[in-house]
Amino acid sequence: MWRYLRHGFVLIGVNDIDCVEKGVIQELQADIIEKDFRYIPIFGCCMDGGYLLSFAIVNLNKTKEQHNFTALKSFVTEISVKYRQQVFICENSSYTSINSLIDSFFEACLNETGLPHVCRGYYLNPSPMSYSERYMRDMKMNEIFIDI
Q1: CA angle 9, 30, 87 (to 5 degrees)
Q2: Based on CB atoms within 10 Å of each CB, which residue in 8, 72, 73, 148 is the most buried?
Q3: Which residues pair with 10 in a beta bridge?
Q4: Which residue spans within the chain are E strands per DSSP?
Q5: CB crowding 108-129: b at 16 or more within 10 Å, else e
Q6: Residue 85, Ramachandran bin (φ over 0: left; ψ between -120 and 50: alpha; else beta)
Q7: pTM of the model as a whole
């Protein structure tokens, strides 16, 4: 994950169940793709069995070349107003700080909603199971998936 996030990234949380029901996630993904950014879906697991969804929007385009970070910040300003979700911008970070930044982000999302949940960790989307799924997620959806 570090090789993608080291160029700078933004975390945007989708922490409201209404966002899921109203298609906000698909709309946010469409906005990310339209602006030619790549993203990593990250799910925070809560102690009560629920989860929080966030996107790490990375400072890379579809061909995995680095964008100007100002373009990413401008895009984030636009989407944070549009979706009214919590946003965290990280221009420079170290390898060891990424996990703690993601943990802090999920805790802040939980505190903002006033929910009495405790985040017990997070997980990434699983890697694609077939070539066609890999093609759709990588080339069509701009998703970055981590092979483990």
Answers
A1: 35
A2: 72
A3: 57, 89
A4: 9-14, 38-46, 51-58, 87-90, 119-124
A5: ebbeeeeeebebeebeeeeebe
A6: beta
A7: 0.79
